Every structure is written in C-alpha cells, then in structure tokens.
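Reviewer 2 asked us to include a model.

Predict the structure of this chain.
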Amino acid sequence: MLRSTVKAVLLRELAAVRRSVEAYPDERTLWKEVTGIANTGGTLVLHLNGNLQHYLGAVLGGSGYVRDRAAEFASRGVARGELLAGVAAAERAIEIGIDAVRDDQLGAPYPEEVAGRQVAIGDFLVHIATHLAFHLGQLDYHRRMVTADSATIGALSPKELPVR
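Predicted model (structure tokens):
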C-alpha cells in the first residue's frame, strides 16, 4: 500500500508542477530572479525532473538516465516545452521506479547511499515525496511573486488521491 500511495502522491504533485509551469505567463518569468530567493521557477523544475529521473527512473527502474545535478542549478532560459518534456520524463520515471519495487523490498536498503547514509527504500520513497512537495511549494510562491497572481494551481488537492 505504501508504494501505491507514494506513487499517487508523486504523480499528483508532479501534475501540479506541470500546471505551475503552464501558469507562468511567459518563459521570461519562469527564470526571473527574486532577491533573497535562491532558485527560479525554471531551476526548481529542472531540479525536480533530474531528482525523480535519477532516484526513481535510473536507480530503481534501470532507465539509464544520467543526472547532471550541477546543470539543474546552473542552466538558465530553458524553454517551457523542454521543462514540460522533463516533467513527462519524470512521470515515466515515477511509474517505472515505483513499479520496480515490491512491497517486501521496502525495508531493504536503497541501492545507493543517500547523503553518505544507507536508508531503506520505503523511507527514501517518503523522502522523495516530501522533497517534491517542498519544492512544489517554492515553485508556487515563485510564480506568485514574479507574476503578482495569487490564483491557485490546485496543488496538493486531496481530491486527486485515489479512492480505496
């Protein structure tokens, strides 16, 4: 059940990332820097796409994706279409990564060390979900700051969770 719940939450949050990117009025505002804020909207999207494709797609799902974490934070002006293609790739990474893990493996060690530590697969899946939600909130605030638009994109809606 944990796997299906984490999968549903990750796909819900990533759908909200997509809506956030689409809610920016243009590509320039995606990359607009705000004093005191470390990352632009575009940077957050690149980082989330890379994170999910690496930890779920490559490590758990064997996708072959090779992450360039430094580029996630250094790149600027990436086109909206390319960011959205990355979101689609991250969605596929969620599917293949979660589906590659069996319920009886959740207590097993995640296949690579994380921050110099060995953690359980289930614990790391929960961490990945909270990491995505944290950065989704930053993305939403960045969009609101640079556009002065307080409209919601419907992030974190319980209505998007599966009914069991």
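The radius of gyration is 16 Å. The mean pLDDT is 95. We have added this to the supplementary material.
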